[in-house]
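**Fold tokens**
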Amino acid sequence: MTNILVTGAGGQLGRQILKRAERAGVQVTGVTSAELDITDRDSVGAAVTPGSVVINCAAYTAVDAAETDEDRAFSVNAVGPANLAQACAEAGARLVHVSTDYVFDGTSDVPYRPGDPTAPRSAYGRTKLAGEHAVLDALPTATVVRTAWVYTGVGSDFVSTMRRFERERDTVRVVDDQVGSPTYSWDLAGGLLELAAANSPMPPILNLTNAGTASWFQLARAVFAGVGADPERVEPCSSAEFVRPAPRPSYSVLSPDAWSESGLTPLRDWRNALADALDAPVHVDR
């Protein structure tokens, strides 16, 4: 079986890929950002082996911090992926590169398809889009997978934060004018492994999220309900009332059509995925 190299294996998605692969008996090598700095061209070249598949989960994901640290974000999100793509081209390896809904401006009212015009509004989005271009320029056979609203339910992600707020606060105010598709990292990891195992040629860009849509407010209420708390304790507010350094897309729904049309398995509805995340964080902890 083809060896799979997972970069950024210390992050929430990378850890989930390793766990899913272990359960499935799939050979995977995971390297954390401390073990492999993808911005170091020589180190990347030595890590990529002929005939392997690289799943790049390494990224600068501090969206707000990137507004004042764009050079570093660009190095990790664009230079690093370019190094991986070049190394894969030289070794005859495949590359699956994870990207984001932030490459869009969020002004649509219909799900974004892979070929829709991009217009990032944040430094994070600009650097991730630059990474997409760098990957496909160096390795046209690579596959960029855009996802959105990824959570695990433990740590510091949105779902985990709502669980903590439920314990600590009487009420919580959450924005209700940003809409997307909450995506459970366990499900996303399974989809990426399926893509890595695919033998047929794939489109250069695909979208992968859990099915269905929600606002952050609706997701927060679903978390409260899922842990047995009163969802009415979550109150709506507008983005204007909760200003962040980096602008967030108002609409982040990504169309799954190209994924399904490529013969890959669509992810389940986000509500079912959330129920599992709230019930079984064992996927990360063990």
